[in-house]
Design brief:
The structure is a homodimer. In chain A, helix 2 (20-27) packs across helix 3 (31-43). The first copy, chain A, is α+β, with helices and mostly antiparallel strands. Chain A folds into two domains: 3-43, Arc Repressor Mutant, subunit A, CATH 1.10.10.10; 56-131, 2-Layer Sandwich (Alpha-Beta Plaits), CATH 3.30.70. Chain A starts with a helix and ends with a strand. In chain A, strands 3-4-2-5 form a four-stranded antiparallel β-sheet. Chain A is elongated, with a radius of gyration of 20 Å. Chain A has five helices and five strands, in the order H-H-H-E-E-H-E-E-H-E. Strand 5 of chain A pairs antiparallel with strand 3 of chain B. Chain A binds a DNA duplex through helix 3. Chains A, B: InterPro entries: AsnC-type_HTH_dom, Dimeric_a/b-barrel, Tscrpt_reg_AsnC-like, Tscrpt_reg_AsnC/Lrp_C, WH-like_DNA-bd_sf, WH_DNA-bd_sf. Chains A, B: Keywords: DNA-binding, Transcription, Transcription regulation. Chains A, B: One of its GO terms (cellular component) is cytosol. Chains A, B: This is AsnC family transcriptional regulator.
Chain lengths: 135, 135
DNA sequence: AATCAAACATGGATGCTATCGACGAGAGAA
DNA sequence: TTCTCTCGTCGATAGCATCCATGTTTGATT
């Protein structure tokens, strides 16, 4: 991880489909050299993968919300975490310090979806919902 | 946006550098056809861009935290939001309903960085920090 | 039902890209 | 020095993205 690797990562973060040749021109390296560096960044675990930035609103998302969850029994926190984080609407699910033990970020296409999730999540604890107004 | 577009997006979400030819084989379309669909998804705003999934721990991140911020005067919420979200350590910054008006997610390389951010953020309001224990 | 236009897919051609292997330069250790 | 490891370049090759011309399908209109 030197300065060149950082610049390569920066460029891939801006556009993960950028060609190694173009990146190479920018960092003054040949395309194979960039390719080898990227491969190493993958192998060494710096880069986990390449993904999409989506416009969720375009896909029908109408509501985004944080849901604090006060788990009934602390012994089930881990179980709850490992299940909830794979739910469709869930973007993030973090175990946190403080009163509430889990913080869930989820996107919904309707309030009905939100209600459904709240009902489903109630088996683990007491949820407190906070709607995202803007970001 | 039909079923094929959805499958293309699914595949790109798994690996944004996947070739259109490979995707085409999977959705039973030629490479140019996939390319045109992707281009349209970009132009119509469904796809915002292509990005990296990074292993932040490898980059030195030691602490992740949610910081609730109770803004002093409600008139400055928007200002605070639009500044804080561009800070280096900040991953997300959302205006939310409820007592605290802003919820900030940030990654830190040290507790010192966390403290610095807390001091800096105090100009806008009263922060409450909750450390992420696991995800 | 017939017709037309728009949207969409295909296939071939072309220039780029990714990646391999061979090779050489430079850094650091024995 | 000499060995070795890392990291670069270059040339070759196979595969890829994209353009254009050509069909095909869809579905809306008359």
């Amino acid at each position: 991880m030197d300065a060149i690797d950082e610049r390569i990562i920066e460029m891939l973060q801006a556009n993960a489909r950028e060609s190694f040749a173009t990146i190479g021109k920018s960092v003054d390296l040949s395309a194979p050299a960039v390719g080898k560096r990227v491969k190493q960044l993958e192998e060494k675990g710096f880069i986990l993968g390449y993904s999409l930035r989506l416009n969720h609103e375009k896909f029908g998302v109408k509501t985004k919300a944080y849901i604090n969850l006060k788990i009934h029994q602390s012994s089930t926190i881990k179980t709850a975490l490992n299940q909830i984080k794979y739910w469709n609407e869930v973007q993030r699910c973090d175990r946190i310090t403080g009163e509430d033990s889990l913080l869930v970020l989820a996107y919904f296409k309707s309030n009905k979806e939100l209600i459904t999730l709240l009902e489903r999540i109630s088996q683990y604890g007491i949820p407190t919902t906070r709607i995202i107004l803007e970001s």
